[in-house]
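Re: folding output
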Amino acid sequence: MTEDTSSKKIDTFQKRKNKEEMKNQLITFALMIVFTLVAFGIVVGELMPKMFVIPTILLLAIVQVAFQLYYFMHMKNAGHEMPSTMMYGGFFAAALSITALSVLIWW
């Protein structure tokens, strides 16, 4: 195999990889727009009981944050294991603290 053939295969592989990455980012972007429109629709259109509006919006926000981290901040790529671990640990500690304080306040 010559150097030129190997280089073309690498270029082809990289182009295919970039195309797949762009497709995933566009799909994720479209989903985030849809989630945002759903959240606005829930609030403006009063489509569900008020008791379920805030938890639903928070759930949509959590999904959007996950999409942002995973696709747009490239946390899924190799070499991001330690930052991912620290961020997820921080999210867990924050959720645990908020839950504990909520239980103490409203119990």
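--- second protein (sequence, then structure) ---
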Amino acid sequence: MSTSDVVNCLDVFRKYILLHKIALQTQTQAWKDRLSENGMRLNIKKTEYLECGPQTNSAITIDGEPLTKVAQFKYLGSLVTSDCETLPDTRLRVNTAWMKWCQVSGVLCDKRIPIYLKAKVYKSIVRPVALYGSECWPATTKQALHTIEMKMLRWPLGLTRLDRARNDDVRKQWGVTPITDKMREARLRWYGHVVHSDKNSIAKTAQQLDLEGNRPQGRPKKRWMDRIKDDMKAVNVTPEDALDRKKWRKACKIADPASRDINR
């Protein structure tokens, strides 16, 4: 693809975005008018919008007053960015998981509590916070979660790098499986839901979307389906296996091992 072809594709994409922006302008104004008819008021100063992909210069207005345009937006606990990167959302998950760990640190760091109870607290309270939304991450962001998990598991045991304790031994003592494996389980579980969803659903439409043009030169970014293919290869399943719910659930499920607690 030549440079002129790329420029033409970007121009077409910007026109496509502009048309949708005009439609969004009309819907936003109609939303504000309908709220006013029912005795409610839209706070225009607190209302924000975000554009994904190429940015446009025009702004969305309500009653002639422009709305604030942002580069990232937090929606249902996940951070959506204008450049569609997952790294900011990963950092948000790391910070949120540490906040949750600090809230229960009184239990996790109490030497009087057996480790198998601490493991239950970690697996039911801390780890789900770290994994929230990870099933939709296409990139390899596992290193950040792997690092925080080992810090969270080593700290209550009083272990440092000078102790030279292996990560596998620490996990066996807690009775937890690697968080990277739980991420793979979450992705495959979500893929199974997408396969069984209606053909007109948003998830199925996004999965089957085929964009025109060629990908840029160099190492391309890893897509969600690329990651799913690697996950299916790791657990030795095929896309056809997702049609069998029981078989798919059994193949993708990764159970935590029993904790090795001598005082239990």
